[in-house]
Amino acid sequence: MAEGSHERWGSQTEYLLSCLGYAVGIGNIWRFPYLCYRNGGGAFLIPYFLTLVICGIPLVYLETTLGQFASAGCISVFNINPLFKGAGYAVVVLNIIAIIYFAAIMSYPLLYIFHSFTTPLPWQSCGNSWNTNRCTEINSNSTVNATIGLMRTPEDEFFHIRLLQASPSIHEIGGIVWPVLWCNLICWLLVYLCICNGVKSVGKIVYFTVLFPYVVLFALFVRGVTLPGAIQGILYFILPDWTQLKKPKVWADAATQIFYSLGPGWGGLVSMASFNKFHYNNLRSSIIIPIVNSGTSVWAGFVVFSVLGFAADRAGVPVDQVATAGPGLAFVTYPAAVSLMPAPNFWAVTFFVMLFFLGIDTMFVTIEAVIAGLLDEYPKLRHRRKLITLLTCVALFGISIICNTKGGLHVIGLLDAHVAIACVPTVCAMEIIAAVYTYGQDKMSVDVLFMTGRPLRRFWLFLWRYILPVILSRVRENCRANSKWGPAENEVRLRWETFRNKTSRDLPLLPTNYGP
């Protein structure tokens, strides 16, 4: 049990908003809509919401129960079985890796906000100093070139050439891209000012940073559905393809999306719950958080695909030629669609401000998970919390500079796809083994009854003991299947093998997949 000096939320609303800010992030905007469209449209919602019930909600409930009862962060929560404490330190390492590249990603919306005040928008047309002779503006005549790979849109060249000055491969890291570095520094300054006082400051700030994106999302929704061609995009998003349900990968993708959207295994939920009052009934919030998160994903799908339908209508191409996922959707495809709207500057600023606030909340909780975990493990450092927070932010900023270089986008892709997320299912499995199997479900039932005054239903114990391990193993396999070698990783492998051939020692080859 943590010492009595452990911080507490000012109200349970602060806890709920902080967890929502942590769970609802940029992945809801740039990953789920495309994943839904690719895996059968409306039919994908069946496995998605089914895995929400049998996987997402139980995992959130387990982590918040452990954190609240122990009043401890991601390391000390494993005091229930010290043999598994290494998993707690693994969570800290994973968060450090994730925040290194995530902070760099959050500098991109700031850059776009700055450039969105330029009239016309700098990515709106070719003919700029950074454009190449392959630059082609979107219109009905550009599709032939696009199919044979000769075309690059002005939005694509603005993002990769003008903003990031991206190098061709990961082994060409290049120099620092200074505008990206300054925006990264601004992000870290904001984060430090917001979390330096712990949950006392975070709890007040989330009232704005969590609720404001929903106001913007509503405005974008209203604007999107009123655009010509919007219904075409929405139909691409929701029309069910029932045959997709026969594919195991669709079900695995649904479980994976639920898993990574809610954020179990990263320590954020454990840390946020540790600041609850001991006798708080956490079951209701553990249901609300996943439902609101999933509802936001579906809502964001309507927002994104209504605008993509408009862009496809203006360009005279099918929606599937403009539908993309990941950073390409947020920083290339969506800006292209916004540039076609009336008052494009206003909607560009609106979209990127929303994107920034969605991401900054995740940064708050991720860094707080690292700091809270360390302070709970070493309580003598609590009276120096501001200094520890400052040193942590400075150190993480310094490490993240590699992602602000010309090769930074390749580093981000490498860390995101092959280092961080591949290990999280293993951490969750460790939590289940430590809590349910070794600590014991009988002890957990007694603890929950003592903590909340309500018995722990056998339904939860059944899911934790039998269902979640199976789903976690499938999510882990799906991560490995998705972690194939791409151009950036092939560069790393090639250089490693070259190094190995030059040495006399019998060094092992890199595995065909990153991760455990």
Automatic annotation (TrEMBL):
<feature type="transmembrane region" description="Helical">
    <location>
        <begin position="44"/>
        <end position="61"/>
    </location>
</feature>
<feature type="transmembrane region" description="Helical">
    <location>
        <begin position="387"/>
        <end position="407"/>
    </location>
</feature>
<comment type="similarity">
    <text>Belongs to the sodium:neurotransmitter symporter (SNF) (TC 2.A.22) family.</text>
</comment>
<keyword id="KW-1133">Transmembrane helix</keyword>
<feature type="transmembrane region" description="Helical">
    <location>
        <begin position="173"/>
        <end position="193"/>
    </location>
</feature>
<keyword id="KW-0812">Transmembrane</keyword>
<dbReference type="Pfam" id="PF00209">
    <property type="entry name" value="SNF"/>
</dbReference>
<feature type="transmembrane region" description="Helical">
    <location>
        <begin position="91"/>
        <end position="114"/>
    </location>
</feature>
<keyword id="KW-0769">Symport</keyword>
<keyword id="KW-0813">Transport</keyword>
<protein>
    <recommendedName>
        <fullName>Transporter</fullName>
    </recommendedName>
</protein>
<feature type="transmembrane region" description="Helical">
    <location>
        <begin position="419"/>
        <end position="439"/>
    </location>
</feature>
<dbReference type="InterPro" id="IPR000175">
    <property type="entry name" value="Na/ntran_symport"/>
</dbReference>
<dbReference type="InterPro" id="IPR037272">
    <property type="entry name" value="SNS_sf"/>
</dbReference>
<feature type="transmembrane region" description="Helical">
    <location>
        <begin position="67"/>
        <end position="84"/>
    </location>
</feature>
<keyword id="KW-0472">Membrane</keyword>
<feature type="transmembrane region" description="Helical">
    <location>
        <begin position="346"/>
        <end position="375"/>
    </location>
</feature>
<feature type="transmembrane region" description="Helical">
    <location>
        <begin position="287"/>
        <end position="312"/>
    </location>
</feature>
<feature type="transmembrane region" description="Helical">
    <location>
        <begin position="15"/>
        <end position="32"/>
    </location>
</feature>
<feature type="transmembrane region" description="Helical">
    <location>
        <begin position="205"/>
        <end position="238"/>
    </location>
</feature>
